[in-house]
């Protein structure tokens, strides 16, 4: 794309793709399985968080335009250590998150008995080969695929909500036909579709919220942070727009409207399908009925276990076909295959874009000595072979853990979101430090909210987040401790244990920015 050629509409389109990405396919059934009746309120909370997040990052991109994006602002606020720390959080997140993307792309395919983890490994090998060959025009392909997927899911969600409005108006639920994907987990189970009648009072009671389980709700919000990731891309295009201050602000507002509309339609449609599913005598992935729990996971067999969330009044049953159920009003029995093709292509391009971008960042950190030097190696094509090897090798290990039943898709998303939240906090705290007026207060409140959500991450994730921060600022922390160590004996201990700032290597502060260009 040529410099200074992007208008507000085209920039908004380039923003919507990374923000929606594969999360709009992964998250709806997972969050329903975790939060039950509280899934829709959790979506509303995270959509509100996304609005403030987008406005803060958009304003930072206006104040610090350039190819480096918001990382330039982070470096300005907290120095090169803060910028490298945010980069390390992103690298660690991408060790886990893309595996969930691959498994989701495979889940909607008719595998014919093949193990999903094995198919995902094959897709990983293909993607690694494409990354080493530096495939061009990948961004445009991802833009088209994400736009088509978002449009179809929005239309399906609106049609499903229309059915809900009609049922509420009539005071009774009609019948909702749905069919399983050929060869999918529901094949041969629901030949006649879901049907059942519910009175208006029963429908309203199904949406009545039970007493909140704060640990469950916090975990759901942690998972939903995936839908906020992507607004950082605004800054990477800030050097290619006409009149950045005016264009970026207009593009952010338009992208926010599109993303919010799609999220609300999909979340509301899935919530209605879950309520309607409670009226069916048959549900689950194996035709069993009456199973209760609070889980939504893809295991080694590839079937998604989605059951009623404990405590949900009226019964909340997650559609076993996931978001493919939203396409039934549009394509009938072809809804599953259509989404399967789109999901595979969208997840593959999302994997290539995220891993390709972060591999360059990892290679730059390796060249600076922050990561092992081998990570900085490059192939003859110029591709960051060391970074690609690090990330893809980690993905093979994670896929093996999934195959052994050690972790599932829900766990992978939670792990990745923990480090993505830490990365986002670096940007939000930058807004607190650099912005003025209402946005500064909004960034401060957002930092408190994100910190509360991050507190629901696994204990070892919090330990790694804190450990990386201490290691990156070890010289400054050492200076503070030396000031406190006035006793001679303690001063000697500090001199032995803590690094000497006069001997600490000074890395090029512009290295990370160069890697993003």
Automatic annotation (TrEMBL):
Main localisation: membrane
Superkingdom classification of source: Bacteria
Bilayer topology annotation: Multi-pass membrane protein
Keywords: Cell membrane, Membrane, Transmembrane, Transmembrane helix
InterPro entries per the UniProt record, alphabetical: AA/rel_permease1, APC_superfamily
Transmembrane segments: 37-64, 85-108, 114-132, 141-161, 214-234, 255-274, 338-362, 383-403, 409-432, 444-473
Keyword Cell membrane: yes
Compartments, record wording: Cell membrane
Signal peptide: none
UniProt keyword Mitochondrion, yes or no: no
PANTHER family reported for this sequence: AMINO ACID TRANSPORTER-RELATED, L-METHIONINE_BRANCHED-CHAIN AMINO ACID EXPORTER YJEH
The name this protein goes by in its record: Amino acid permease
Native organism: Nitratidesulfovibrio liaohensis
Classification of source organism: Bacteria, Pseudomonadati, Thermodesulfobacteriota, Desulfovibrionia, Desulfovibrionales
């Amino acid at each position: 794309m040529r410099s200074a050629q992007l208008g507000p509409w085209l920039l908004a389109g380039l923003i919507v793709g990374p923000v929606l990405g594969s999360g709009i396919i992964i998250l709806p059934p997972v969050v329903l399985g975790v939060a039950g009746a509280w899934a829709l309120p959790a979506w509303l909370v995270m959509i509100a968080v996304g609005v403030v997040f987008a406005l803060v990052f958009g304003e930072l991109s206006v104040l610090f335009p350039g190819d480096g994006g918001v990382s330039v602002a982070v470096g300005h606020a907290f120095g090169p250590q803060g910028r490298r720390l945010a980069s390390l959080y992103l690298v660690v997140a991408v060790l886990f998150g893309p595996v969930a993307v691959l498994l989701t792309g495979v889940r909607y395919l008719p595998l014919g008995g093949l193990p999903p983890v094995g198919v995902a490994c094959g897709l990983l090998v293909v993607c690694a080969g494409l990354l080493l060959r530096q495939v061009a025009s990948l961004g445009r392909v991802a833009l088209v695929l994400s736009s088509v997927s978002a449009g179809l899911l929005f239309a399906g969600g609106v049609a499903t909500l229309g059915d809900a409005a009609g049922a509420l108006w009539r005071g009774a639920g009609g019948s909702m036909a749905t069919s399983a994907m050929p060869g999918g987990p529901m094949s041969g189970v629901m030949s006649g579709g879901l049907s059942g009648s519910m009175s208006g009072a029963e429908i309203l009671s199904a949406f009545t919220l039970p007493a909140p389980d704060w640990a469950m709700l916090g975990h759901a919000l942690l998972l939903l942070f995936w839908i906020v990731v992507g607004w950082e891309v605004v800054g990477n295009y800030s050097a290619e727009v006409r009149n950045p201050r005016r264009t970026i602000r207009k593009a952010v507002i338009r992208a926010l409207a599109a993303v919010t509309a799609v999220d609300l339609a999909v979340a509301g449609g899935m919530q209605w399908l879950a309520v309607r599913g409670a009226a069916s005598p048959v549900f689950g992935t194996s035709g069993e009925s009456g199973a209760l729990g609070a889980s939504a996971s893809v295991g080694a067999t590839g079937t998604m276990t989605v059951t009623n969330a404990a405590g949900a009044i009226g019964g909340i049953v997650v559609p076993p076909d996931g978001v493919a159920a939203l396409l039934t009003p549009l394509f009938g029995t072809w809804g599953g295959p259509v989404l399967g093709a789109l999901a595979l292509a969208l997840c593959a391009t999302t994997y290539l874009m995220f891993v390709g971008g972060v591999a360059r960042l990892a290679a730059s950190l390796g060249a600076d000595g922050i990561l092992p030097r081998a990570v900085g190696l490059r192939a003859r094509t110029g591709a960051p072979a060391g970074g690609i090897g690090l990330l893809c090798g980690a993905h093979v290990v994670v896929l093996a853990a999934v195959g052994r039943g050690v972790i599932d898709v829900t766990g992978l998303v939670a792990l990745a979101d923990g480090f993505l939240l830490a990365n986002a906090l670096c940007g939000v705290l930058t807004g607190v430090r650099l912005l003025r007026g209402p946005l500064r207060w909004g960034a401060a409140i957002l930092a408190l909210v994100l910190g509360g959500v991050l507190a629901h991450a696994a204990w070892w994730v919090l330990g790694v987040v804190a450990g990386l921060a201490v290691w990156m600022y070890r010289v400054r922390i050492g200076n503070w401790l030396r000031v406190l160590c006035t006793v001679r004996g303690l001063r000697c201990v500090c001199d032995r244990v803590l690094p000497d700032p006069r001997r600490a290597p000074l890395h090029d502060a512009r290295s990370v920015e160069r890697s993003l260009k």
